[in-house]
Amino acid sequence: MQFIDIVFYSFIVVVCIQTVFYLGIFSKFAFEKIKHKKAKTIPVSVIICAKNEAENLQNFLPSILEQDYPNFEVILINDSSRDHTLDVMEQFEKQYNNIKIVNVRNIEAFWANKKYALTLGIKAAKNNTLLFTDADCKPVSNKWISDMSSHFSHTKTIVIGYGAYKRIKGSFLNMLIRFETLLTATQYFSYASLGMPYMAVGRNLAYRSETFYDARGFMNHIDINSGDDDLFINEIATGKNTAICVTKTSFTESLPKTTFKDWVLQKRRHISTAHRYKLKHKILLSTFYASQFLFWGLAIALLLTTFNWPIVLSLVLFRFLLLYLILGKTSKKLNEKGLLAILPILELFLISMQMVIFIKNLISKPHHWK
């Protein structure tokens, strides 16, 4: 058997693997009916950890404080900010009686560690149900708390929500960021729907305080600056205790990075936690990424040599048909617009950037969360 034959048959195997992922796993969430739960009135503590976020708090905090929900408090954590973050928090505290400020000062043992600051905020919360978001986020509606809290039950103690990024017209970087967010959400929502939750995003996440304390908080990964959301969920989430909330009024929207340098730094922090995931999750995620990477590499090589090109081209078209079908349904469900037109370009660019980021993280590790 010649080398080109090995490449050809390898390509067929890769397309089969991609088919299993898209039809066998991702289609579960894509075609699943959105579940609307009856509203509850359980007391909720919304927790926001802010570091140098004075302007963002000024802009976005009102959308949280004006939520249509009868019983909630807002825990504002000032994580050793160098700007006027604390001043802004105190201004809002004078206007609203449901705000509690936790002012965190750096200590040597937990220098610039977000998990330490979050832990202090969680301990200050008076309510058992904790709902997390970021200072540069805003809920897309005043039903955010209501929607997220409605998914709690006697058995469901974790609720995973969707955190979108604001759309910026005419920006390729913005489309890339939103595509990566969509693809990542497709994976973690799909696995959660199948009873295998493995991560969540801190921009929109809720869990009960006893769940936090039963797991000893963040102690099992306190040595890593990132991971207060994905590593924590990877450690404690199961098919029995985890629910997903994807009603469109439950989403949050964050400010995206506007330069490739800042985005790469952000993704380096995010990816740096993956090596601490459970083995089964690392295998699944690595296999999916490898099959994506090999699909492009092998497809380009085979098409350039024109080896069995009708079969190769047919498999390429079939695979992209799957992408457009599954990601099209998911993007509609998550209200992500304007991405499908250049989906192949976005995917190829994202795969290339992920490889660059992976190599950068092998050479040096990102340190502080901000």
From TrEMBL:
EC number: 2.4.-.-
Transmembrane segments annotated in the record for this chain: 6-31, 283-303, 309-327, 339-359
Molecular function as annotated in GO: glycosyltransferase activity
InterPro entries in the cross-refs: Glyco_trans_2-like, Nucleotide-diphossugar_trans
Entry-linked Gene3D superfamilies: Spore Coat Polysaccharide Biosynthesis Protein SpsA, Chain A
Record's keyword terms, sorted: Glycosyltransferase, Membrane, Transferase, Transmembrane, Transmembrane helix
Protein name (record): Glycosyltransferase
Pfam families in the record: Glycos_transf_2
Residues in Glycosyltransferase 2-like domain copies: 45-179
Family, as annotated: Belongs to the glycosyltransferase 2 family.
